[in-house]
Design a protein that fits this description.
2 domains; Jelly Rolls; about 290 residues; Arc Repressor Mutant, subunit A; single chain; alpha+beta
């Protein structure tokens, strides 16, 4: 039984990284490996392709992976959905027991995800915070190991299907439409304008966007405008009315509704959060446009 495993010898030596990261829908991490360093990746929102060694997975919210020292790993956005995820990197002594968590995707239940959120949010500069965070990580891993007892076999992906010419053409059309939207961040770009830029009809672009992104082009444009607004709010760039105008909203009420729908809170409330005081990084797609 797992309860009899030699957990007493296991020890977190150093917590190197504990971050919550929000990436864009085109995010791609080319991969790396760490000697002597364990790394935890847990997807919180969106979708992501994850590769660990020779294994490949399509990660969904709540999926977690533990990369052992020396293992090559990479991840990237997939299905046009921006991944938000936790990353925790650490060193440990007598860590052989952790190997039973490696080599597969784990669906973490709500309480474990809450523990992980607390670990990442813990103030790193507080007195004795290092000791506390290591204790939180050890507790999290202990609970995860208990979960491992009853879990099923790995959920590895089969070989990727061959992409057809039609699929390539569809992806290119949606990409052109998104590039046009990116080039006009302070405008409410219409479907007709985006379709002209993509070289297809508006109904066909609507169909392609839903297939490629998993939601409408209008929804994608809204998310991008909100991402830009988050950056402006986090840098104290003007009041809410000015930020709304800067991202293409003439009506502050409409901007507030859109912001609340994407982020779950109003712009003024977001501006008071820890995330906004970070400050929020400039969206990757907007960096490329500049």
């Amino acid at each position: 039984m797992l309860q009899d495993a030699p957990m007493a010898d296991f020890e977190i030596a150093r917590l190197v990284v504990a971050l919550y990261q929000e990436k864009g829908h085109r995010y791609r991490f080319r991969g790396e490996r760490h000697a002597g360093l364990w790394e935890l990746f847990c997807l919180d929102r969106g979708r992501a392709f994850v590769r660990v060694g020779t294994q490949r997975f399509q990660a969904r919210p709540g999926d977690a992976f533990l990369y052992p020292p020396g293992a090559f790993h990479q991840h990237q956005a997939t299905r046009g959905q921006a991944p938000h995820y936790f990353t925790v990197a650490f060193t440990a002594r007598h860590a052989g027991i952790l190997k039973r968590l490696c080599g597969r995707a784990w669906k973490l239940p709500g309480p474990l995800r809450a523990q992980l959120a607390r670990l990442v949010a813990e103030e790193p500069h507080r007195l004795a915070a290092g000791t506390l965070r290591r204790a939180l990580l050890a507790q999290f891993l202990s609970e995860w190991l208990r979960l491992a007892e009853g879990e099923a076999a790995p959920r590895a992906e089969t070989a990727a299907p061959r992409v057809t010419y039609h699929e390539n053409a569809a992806q290119a059309a949606v990409a052109r439409a998104l590039e046009y939207i990116d080039a006009h961040p302070d405008e409410n770009v219409s479907l007709q304008a985006a379709a002209r830029a993509a070289g297809v009809s508006p109904p066909y672009l609507r169909q392609l966007a839903r297939a490629e992104l998993g939601h409408s082009l209008r929804e994608e444009a809204k998310r991008r405008r909100v991402a830009r607004a988050k950056h402006l709010l986090s840098h104290g760039t003007g009041n809410v009315k000015e930020v709304a105008a800067a991202v293409g909203y003439e009506d502050v009420s409409a901007f507030t509704r859109a912001f609340r729908r994407v982020e779950g809170l109003a712009p003024r409330a977001y501006a008071r959060t820890i995330a906004a005081r970070g400050p929020t990084p400039l969206p990757e797609w907007f960096k490329k446009r500049r």
